[in-house]
Amino acid sequence: MSTTIIAKPLTKAEFAPYGKVIEPYDKEQETPENCYEINNGYAKRHHAIAESKLDGGNVGMSIFCAKKREFPIALSVMEYHPFGTQAFFSMHGQDYIVVVAPAGEPPQSADDLKVFYAKSHQGVQYDANVWHHPLLALGCNSDFLVIDRINGEGNNCHELDINDWQVQIEIDRETDSESDSATKSEINSEHS
Predict the structure, then answer these.
(1) What is the sign, positive or negative, of the torsion defined by CA atoms of 155, 160, 163, 164?
(2) What range does the domain containing 136 cover?
(3) In the chain, how many domains are there?
(4) pLDDT tens digits for 42-82?
(5) Do the Cβ atoms of 66 and 143 come closer than 8 Å?
(6) Is the dihedral of CA 129, 132, 137, 138 positive or negative?
(7) Which of 35, 63, 66, 186 supports an S-S bond with 137, CB 3.0-4.6 Å?
(8) How many C-beta atoms lie closer than 10 Å to residue 113's C-beta?
């Protein structure tokens, strides 16, 4: 029998046990201490919003080209990286799905998984040893900028096949369409 998990909106608080959500601050709130003007006032720097950590090797940037997924999305594998953090940013302005499980022992069932719906302006950074599903791009084939450990010794990717769990991901279509309209309206007002 298959299990369907409805993806929840990605928030910093909900994702904190697994890593960091990387996004600009809410324009409605006071400017945070780590955000300040640079380049003679023509830019703002959101400083130190996530710290890349690694054990040996170097921090590198790569581009992952992910094929789009259709709902319901069947999950196939979970993986973790013991020697460093791993960050993902959509380069095509597309939403995507994030699936995680706590660091440490392998997840045993769908009950151990948390599923989030990441909006196009949100990046994620997985802490070392956090179990996560490979990229789940939505809408179109998408490129992701990835910041992680390269050139190090040892196996930095351990996988767990979960095909036999028969887990599928869906989203709450009503919540997503309301959120999408609000986001598009906000983006249009910022650029007008």
Answers:
(1) positive
(2) 3-190
(3) 1
(4) 998 988 888 888 888 899 999 999 999 999 999 999 999 99
(5) yes
(6) negative
(7) 66
(8) 22
